[in-house]
Design brief:
Blueprint lengths: L5 H9 L3 H15 L5 H7 L3 H17 L2 H9 L19 H9 L16 E2 L2 E2 L6 H5 L3 H6 L2 H31 L7
Antiparallel strand pairs: 1-2
Helix pairs in contact: 2-6, 4-9
The chain binds iron/sulfur cluster (SF4).
Iron/sulfur cluster binds next to loops.
Length: 185
């Protein structure tokens, strides 16, 4: 079997509107979950239990520091267009990230939120694993809210999740390079 060219892979993984990327990720996740792909899926998802723990720890950390409440309150203010979670920010969610969330069992179909990010739900971001930029950005309100200890706690917890994300993306790219049949039905 021929391998996928870098250009084809790049276009598949990183280009297109949120709805297009989600549909592509959805189809890819379905192909990976087919019985004939049990072996590659197993190697792609071997560290999912540890990733789930890291995500849970980060969520608890964010909730404990009051971030979730502050972001949801800001995002839902009339005329705020989602606060930091504006429609423009949805472009930070690429196919590897959406596919990872889908394989973790999360429903994250983009929705029409007007000026706000299409992945924003009533209780905040609907992703379990969030885009790198979103995890690393703290607006002035959050910076004022966080003590140096709190910031450090968050950075450590975020770095752990991002480490898993980066390893996942590397594994997915390596697999798709070898298995271009997974790009299309
Ligand atoms: S992906 Fe999530 S955290 Fe990032 S802008 Fe959209 S709703 Fe906000």
């Amino acid at each position: 079997m021929n391998s996928a060219s870098p250009e084809v892979l790049f276009a598949f993984l990183y280009t297109g509107a949120a709805t297009v990327l989600h549909e592509r990720a959805f189809q890819l996740a379905a192909r990976l979950q087919a019985p004939e792909n049990a072996v590659p899926l197993m190697s792609l998802s071997a560290d999912f239990p540890a990733l789930r723990q890291a995500v849970q720890h980060l969520d608890e950390c964010m909730a404990g520091l009051g971030l979730g409440t502050a972001c949801v309150a800001c995002a839902s203010r009339p005329g705020k267009a989602g606060g930091c979670c504006s429609a423009y920010m949805a472009a930070n969610a690429d196919l590897p990230l959406i596919a990872l969330n889908l394989l973790l069992g999360l429903s994250c179909r983009p929705q029409d939120n007007g000026e706000a990010c299409c992945f924003l739900g009533e209780r905040g971001c609907r992703f379990a694993v969030k885009p790198l930029f979103c995890l690393n950005y703290y607006c002035q309100t959050l910076q004022d809210l966080l003590s140096p200890t709190g910031q450090n706690q968050l950075q450590v917890a975020s770095a752990r999740v991002l480490g898993f994300q980066s390893a996942w993306e590397d594994r997915l790219i390596a697999l798709l390079h070898k298995r271009p049949d997974l790009l299309h039905e």
